[in-house]
Write a structure and sequence with these properties.
By secondary structure, the chain is mostly beta strands. The chain has four helices and 36 strands. The protein has a seven-stranded antiparallel β-sheet with strand order 23-24-25-26-17-18-28, with no helix packed on it. The N terminus is likely disordered.
Amino acid sequence: MLKLSVSTCGALLLAANVAAQTVVVPDPGVIAGGGSSANIWRAGINRVQCFYDSSNFLNQAIGQPITISGFEWRAIAAVAAPITYPSVEIYVQNAAVNYSTPSTTFASNRTVAFPTTPNYAGPVTVNAGAAGVYVINIPLTTTFNYFPDAGQDLLVEIVILANPAPLTGTSADCGFNNPAHLCNSIRSVGSTTVLTGTASAFCPIIRTTYSNIPGGASNTTLGVGCYQTARSLYELFPGSTADLGGNTITLTQNVNGGYTAVTTPGATLVMPTGVGLALTDDLMSAAQALPFTFDYPGGSTSSVFVDSNGSLHLNVVGASNIGGSVATLLASTAHHLCASMQDLLPDGATNINNVYVDTTTVPGQALFTWLNVPCFGAVAPTSTFQIALIDSGTNDIVEFRYQSLTNNSTSNGGVAITGFSLGGTALNGGSVDFTAGVVSSSVDQPPLRLAGLTRPVTNTNWNLQVSNIPAGGVLGIDIFGISDPAIPDLFFLGMPGCGLRASLDLLNAYLPAGATHAYGFAVPNDPVLTGFQLFTTSAMWVLPAPNAFGVITANGVGGTVGTL
């Protein structure tokens, strides 16, 4: 364990930052919004327990002790005139359960039993404002100290004790996919006294006002490690855009465990002639048998499920996906092939033949066609496209064929996604441009990663861990420095895409023995060190060489010493 000298760092002390700041949870990098619930700030009484995973804070570089002093909620639609709730209570505490598995019994989710003093009690006004504006602002009367790195999730409990005036609710902007958006809720609509509620995936997005607790130690993640590869391959089309009409995307398996995609002009669709699946809005089909075993990167199947919203599910039926966010695709339990995952509106009543399956017309091909399908909230123009699964031995081929493609749904900001993912814990390789040239994916490999297991508190060990060490790692170096060189790309050393986030003041070599490596720093018991900053990262020689220099680096961690 390395030790910090008071004399070495005394001149580098920094004042603790106690200025008020805000952070949005769920993490806006995961969900920017789009879910809507009228049963939180509703036209009536209710109780809602809202759970936010601690990683919503940690992923936004908030691992230090903070004091939460207020919350804001935003509306999904415009609020024309103010609305007043005469009696509201807000309770804030650590959740007794993980956000993903709350109990329907309210008391079981609390670490502080009721009755207890609310963090706010009084009237609440919903201000007039446009869609997406934070129209509710509640400063807490009793602040709450939260330690995100302690592993406990945040519980915010809203109790509306009397009807609003006028009797009008406000649809709140929400996360709506628990595993992707890292939030959850339990609610008792119409009652504030029942002991149990019902689960709802719709958990409100809140902007949290906080300040760092003076003297609190902190870890800050700096940059990213190298190298990450992802098997998922996708293009995200935001804001009602799409450029795939009149093209064909051909996906073939490559030796790296992913797909290689080539886009060519022109699209020859084999038009269906039989009866369609009669899929309606946001509906999944029953299992559709294939005439061959379809092999794809990471799996194989003899049947698929058709999503009315432009996708095939390859392994399980899952839930219909209307686009929304990349996180939803990457966290899904279903393996997806998405010709255009967006909010489409096939109508099983008047457009019974919008979506077809054909496994007999072309030998060795299974064809899935969306014919003249409009987008949700729009009538024209419609889209006609086809997914072709083509038998080719153990290297089966996929073709996305687009006669026309429109992306103008009125939901989710007109977001559409084209591509492939196994979901689950899939890594995000970023959006590609299918029409710009050949693009490829490969088996998931996360970058070398460094994380603080503890914070640099005086008289404790600052423990850190390197993870995602590749099997070919042969020699590692722990690096400590008193400054951050902030070099994002060491291309000039033959290490393109790798950065350096700690000066080379102290080095410690080690032989890797597995996928992780722990090291640490003994922080002296001296309060004068409060505010001192120390930087650390890790480097690894790897075989076969991933670059000309043969070395990869982790992200950096900047530690600020504190007394708690």
